[in-house]
């Protein structure tokens, strides 16, 4: 019973972050399922089944708050579904011994990307309003869908920063569109896993509690996306993903690190993680202060221009 409650809280927290940041539900949930010994394909299948409900709830919530560009959803979601089905059938064909470290390496890579991307660059805002072309979104969706199914997460970590980096869509609409299109990806990946491993390796009680936690968090996250600093949240989530998957790799047969090596690695990661969050916090407040100064200067300029016109 305690493990089910814990999974429900994981689903709630993961969806809260995912809905506010446009990523991390699958990566966070799968990482924790792997940490408690679930095999790779079953972990990813469990998360994707839960995501059918959470992404639907999240999409509806973002739609109600006006956070979705439906053209982007269509152009990235359909190829994303194709990539997810292919990734699910590929992962299902791997043995548990091979799949677990492979998935941890994918998740670790995604965690590093999230940490570095948000800590170093924050959210780009240039080129806002320019159209996002199908020739950009379709390959992006195909790759992100494949990584999402094989890594147990990755749709958001690949898709959200890529679209944000283009600077062509407002951050809240990037997040809302990615969350809404993930509904198609979750369905396709789930079908792929049923074809590959069947249903006997999936604990539907776990699916249910992950789903329940995520559905409760979805409307809260859609509201928070206008208020929470994504740069700080990105650094925090990236660190969690890195730490957990380094732990999995160090304890795997592939590495089999000693206790001293593991402890040194954890301390090193914790120090870098704390520094990244502190840097993101400082840069976020510096950017806010700069924006305030620019707003005051712009207002003074408008008033000066008005006084000159009156004179």
TrEMBL record:
Compartment(s) of residence: Cell membrane; Membrane
InterPro entries: TM_pro_TauE-like (IPR002781), TSUP/Inactive_protease-like (IPR051598)
Statement: the UniProt record of this protein carries the keyword Transmembrane: yes
Superkingdom of this protein's organism: Bacteria
Keywords in alphabetical order: Cell membrane, Membrane, Transmembrane, Transmembrane helix
Transmembrane domains' residue ranges: 72-91, 98-116, 136-159, 180-198, 204-225, 232-250, 262-281
GO cellular component: a single term: plasma membrane
Topology of this chain in the membrane: Multi-pass membrane protein
Main location: membrane
PANTHER family: MEMBRANE TRANSPORTER PROTEIN MJ0441-RELATED, MEMBRANE TRANSPORTER PROTEIN YTNM-RELATED
Family statement drawn from the similarity comment of this UniProt entry: Belongs to the 4-toluene sulfonate uptake permease (TSUP) (TC 2.A.102) family.
Name of the molecule in the record: Probable membrane transporter protein
The species this protein was found in: Planotetraspora silvatica
């Amino acid at each position: 019973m305690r493990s089910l409650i814990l999974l429900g809280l994981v689903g709630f927290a993961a969806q809260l972050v995912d809905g506010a940041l446009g990523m991390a539900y699958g990566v966070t949930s799968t990482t924790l399922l792997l940490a408690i010994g679930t095999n790779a394909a079953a972990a990813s299948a469990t998360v994707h089944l839960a995501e059918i409900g959470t992404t639907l709830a999240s999409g509806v919530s973002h739609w109600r708050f006006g956070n979705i560009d439906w053209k982007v959803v269509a152009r990235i979601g359909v190829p994303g579904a194709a990539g997810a089905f292919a990734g699910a059938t590929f992962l299902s064909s791997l043995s548990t011994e091979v799949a677990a470290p492979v998935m941890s390496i994918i998740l670790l890579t995604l965690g590093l990307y999230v940490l570095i991307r948000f800590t170093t660059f924050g959210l780009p805002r240039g080129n806002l309003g320019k159209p996002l072309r199908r020739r950009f979104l379709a390959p992006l969706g195909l790759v992100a869908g494949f990584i999402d199914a094989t890594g147990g997460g990755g749709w958001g970590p690949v898709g959200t920063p890529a679209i944000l980096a283009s600077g062509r869509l407002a951050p809240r609409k990037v997040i809302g569109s990615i969350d809404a299109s993930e509904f198609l990806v979750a369905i396709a990946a789930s079908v792929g896993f049923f074809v590959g491993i069947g249903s006997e390796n999936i604990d539907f009680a776990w699916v249910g509690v992950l789903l329940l936690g995520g559905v409760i968090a979805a409307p809260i996250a859609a509201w928070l996306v206008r208020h929470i600093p994504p740069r700080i949240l990105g650094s925090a989530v990236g660190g969690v993903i890195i730490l957990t998957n380094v732990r999995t790799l160090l304890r795997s047969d592939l590495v089999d690190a000693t206790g001293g090596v593991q402890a040194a690695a954890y301390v090193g990661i914790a120090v870098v993680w704390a520094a990244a969050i502190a840097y993101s916090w400082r840069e976020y407040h510096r950017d806010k202060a700069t924006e305030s100064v620019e707003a005051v200067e712009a207002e003074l300029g408008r008033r000066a221009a008005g006084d000159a016109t009156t004179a």
